Predict the structure.
Amino acid sequence: MNSLGTEYTKEYTTFIGLEIHIQLLTATKVFCDCAVGFGDEPNTHICPICLGYPGVLPALNESALFQAYQVATALKCELSPATVFERKNYFYPDMPKNYQISQYQHPIGINGTIEFPYRNEVRSIRIHDVHLEEDAGKMIHAGDISLIDYNRAGTPLLEIVTEPDLTSGDETEAFIHYFRRFVRYLEVCDGNMEEGSLRCDANISLNEPGRGLGTKVEVKNLNSSRFVRLALNHERERQAKLLAEGSSIQQETRLWNENRDITVVMRRKEESHDYRYFPEPDLPPFRPTPDYLKTVESSLEELPLSRMNRFRGEYGLEDDAVAFLTEEKSRADFFETTAAIYAEEIKSDETRGMEIYRWLSGDVLRHLNRSHTSLENSNLTPRRLAGLISLINSGRIHGKIAKKILHGVFEEDKDPEQLLEEKGLEQITDPERVREMVQRVISEDPAAAAQAAAGEEKVLGYFMGLIMKLSGGRVDPRISRDILQEEILKEKEKE
Amino acid sequence: MFRSTEKYWKSVLESQEKIEKYAADVRQIDRRIGAFIEFDPHRALPAPAEGNPLNGIPVAVKDNIAVEGFRLSCGSKMLSEVASPYTATAVQKLQEAGVWIVGKTNLDEFGMGSSTDNSALQRTHNPWDTSRVAGGSSGGSAAAVAAGLVPAALGSDTGGSIRQPASFCGMYGLKPTYGSISRFGLVAYASSLEGIGIISDSLSLTRSLFETMRAEDRHDQTSLLLQGESTPVRTIGVLSHPEGLSPAVDRAYRRTIDELKNLGYTIKEVELPTLDYVIPAYYTIASAEASANLARYAGVRYGHQNSLAEDPQELMETSRDQGFGAEVKLRILLGTYVLRSGFQEQYYIRAQKIRTALRRDFEEVFQSVDALLSPTFPVQAFPHDSSDLDQFQQKLADRFTATANLAGIPALAFPVGFEEGLPAGMQLMAPMHGEERLFEVCQKYQEVCTPIHPDRAASRPHAKEERSTP
């Protein structure tokens, strides 16, 4: 943002709201039995129903409905006693029926809230409503011809509409990052913005402080959270400049142009659609029973913000560690399971949170990145990691050997204990065995021994290296350093 | 007097020769009637369904109900070249019972009309007087049955489209309870009002076809399998002052009331205060739903396509303009109009309120009577291009039949003899899932009147053969 923009924008309050679409993680489409598949050959997941052939009817996918209720419940929405599907009427070539089955007057949930962390505080955003609908196909223009792929048509989409409670592009970007984590924790969406499984449109208005909302401008074509930030900050500046000049804002829809880094007009208000919503006669209203809602409630996983707070308190972790560990639900689960196994089975009062974090964010992450695997799909289990850490803490191995064993776990799919035995990697802590080795390296290089005896510190390091080499890295470095110093002292006395 | 028998119909499939003879007769007679849009007895020969009484019975299907491999034209230029890639659940159930689907019958375009003259493909004539219409929109099905080409045909009834042509042709016509037969595969016109039903010359066949098709279908979440309680019918309600009936229909109505009284039923006059609002409510709801239901026909994936269009928008606009007939366009426009935002309260929502009031009327009526008798239609079969009833009057005339669609209740049209040389028909209505009551009364009424076919010797395809059999 340039200084000119800042000068304008500080005069105004900014109101940003989002319309977020998430593709639900169901095996089949929302109204037919076709598989949901991204990136497959065009028009391979289609049937008379999702193509809108004459005479077909929609049949609601129960799993999509359940996931919709999970999201609405996690967003603390008021749930409609009877949720109603409606037809949203407009013509577009990639819309098989030329109406979209959506919800309007009685969405699944209304008046929710979501809290998310932003710059060391917790922000709360109100949710206007959560409603379930179907996705359209995709039209591709290739020169003079237009092609349509209907694989996506009928994919279950959940739309989450927020109130205009966000105040800047940066905050909105942070919100989207959090929201992505939120839906991944709930396991209802993979949150992939590039593939379009999480999409968002924004609306933004500015006004003088205390005067309520301004004239709303919608911004579309925001294909990444970065574009969301750039487009909204750009739009905020554009509007502030207009207002400062005494001009008024046009109610319109604008598109983010990622090549020019500006928003451009797509359509004005007077061109806006009348969707002629009316209740979908092919789908009866759904009335969730108390039992149904209880099942939804009990299926919900702990949400990221709560988990972040708990990690801070229970494991005494710093913000960086908390952020890393809660980034993915699978990682947070792995972390907690490891800590629990360590505490329970190793019978320790300590959970060793910080140690587990260091391993996960260090060597484990490096290995996963190198081998392009995920934690869940690797040979490392929470039990193995807990075992490895316990080997270190009981003094049976030291850090370098631990790294070797971790490598063995990944490569050979074996427990740390087994690798330790097979490779004979157990630390040598018997002072007599260590002393033998120390005496041997000293006697093999009397000149260096003399230097050491003369007080040259760095020669001690040289001898330590020789001892490690001789023992295959197995000697306890603390013990061997002590003995080395004793032996050098003896050398000195000899002189 | 000849009555088609199950035994005869089942014998047709006995040999290739008999099938060919049957096919030749149907083609010859239908040249005069125009009931079939497509007739092919070989395409869907039934698999043997051991012991099923419906095995081998030929049935025609209105051409807005999907049968894989057959056309699905809906009587429209828009879909005249479309072949269905799947089969409607109701038809599938019949085929599993061994029913023989022999062809597809003509209709008013997308079921919109009361004469079948709104078909963009061909004209259908009333077998009793070919200068007259067979009724509509299931006119092809009614004419095929009346002409003796099939003993039964499937139709669809949105506001009377089974019962009115059945009465125009002197046949039975059943519009079942909403949701009792799956709509999956019935091309939607007005989804909340319509359903698949049966036109037949046999009451027992009507009943067994209904029993075979009714089911809860996972492809139609508005379908529901419920057995109505079997209350014996003692009291039949009649409308105190049915207005606008032709003198002939009025006579037939009074005569039927007397005949039912003579059969031992108690007759009770009832009021349906909302009857006057039925037509505005019916056309508002039907058009609104139609405007969305017919939006999919835009020349993009199937159906009529304007090959000269230069961009997708033009393709959709011009294909629709060229593919739809005037009546269809009228209803799409009407439906679009009543659904505009800001006008829904005035039209669509008000119509839904009338619908609720009508349902309450019926609930009250059925507290005191077991079934309700009314005329099917204010007039008998009218001449083609008649000036007696213009398109607007034809709509007004739907009020007796459309009430059952708004209320979702079952209704059965049945023949009550002849007036002025043409068939006259009445309809009985019962509470939701009360089809048994309708069958029971009509069964008893067979003591007074049973359906007959016109000019039997000439029009029965098999009459000669039947008579020559020793």
